[in-house]
Amino acid sequence: MAALGTVALLGDQWAQSWTGAEQRAVAAGTRTVAVEPAEESLVCPPPVALPKGADVGDSQFSASPVPTRSGIGALVQGGAAGVEDGPQGPRTTGLDGGDATALTGDPASGAGQQAAVDGTRVLRATPVADEVFGASASLASVTTQGDLRGLAAASCTSPGTSQWLVGGRTTVGATTTLTVQNPTERPATVTLDVYGPSGKVALGGGGTFTVAAHDQVTTRLESVAPEQDRLAVHVSSTGARVSASLQRQAIDGLVPAGADLVTPGSPPRSSLAVGGVVSHGEPLDDPHAPRLRLLAPGDADTTARISVYGPSGEVTLRGADEVDLEAGVVTDVPLGGLPEGTYAVVVDAQAPVVGAARFDRPGQQPEDSVVGGTPYDVAWSRGQAAPAAAGSALGSVALPDEARARVSLAGVPPERDPDQEPDGEQAVTVRAYDAEGAELGQAELTVAAGATTGVDVADLADGGTPAAVRVDTSDPEADDDADDAADAGPGVLWSVVLEADDGTAEAGTLVATLAPTPARTAPGDVAVRTVDAAR
Question: What is the spatial distance between Cα 121 and Cα 119, in angstroms, rounded to a whole number?
Answer without folding.
Answer: 6
